[in-house]
Amino acid sequence: MIVEVFKTNVEEVELSERIIQQLSAQFPESLINFDIDDCDKILRVEAAEVSPEKIIQILNSNGYSCEILL
């Protein structure tokens, strides 16, 4: 399994749940969650295959910032 961690600006639970639904549709075998209490508003994606570019694109198209957390 690959784990990618992203820094976002998603601050509301309802919004994070909507984004998780969108990401789950694109990556159905993934485990996806947000930690919006963290200062970096963490998005964590665990899957056999992860496309960071696609994840960033999905969040950006929804008006949110997203970058790989190093």
Element layout with pairings:
Blueprint: E1 2-8, H1 13-26, E2 31-35, E3 42-47, H2 52-61, E4 66-68
Antiparallel strand pairs: 1-3, 1-4, 2-3
What does this protein structure show overall?
The chain is 34% helix and 30% strand. The chain is of the alpha+beta class. The chain has a single domain, classed as Alpha-Beta Plaits, CATH 3.30.70.100. The chain has a 4-stranded antiparallel β-sheet, with helices on one face.
Total helices: the number is 2
Reading the helices and strands in chain order gives: EHEEHE
* Tally of structural domains: 1
Terminal CA distance:
18 Å
* Sheet/helix structural class: alpha+beta
CATH architecture assignment: 2-Layer Sandwich
Poorly predicted tracts of residues: none
Name the beta content range: 25-35%
Cα-atom Rg, whole angstroms?
11 Å
Summarize the structure.
This is HMA domain-containing protein. The protein has 70 residues and is α+β, with helices and mostly antiparallel strands.
Give structural attributes.
single chain, 4 strands, 70 residues, 4-stranded antiparallel sheet, Alpha-Beta Plaits, alpha+beta, HMA domain-containing protein
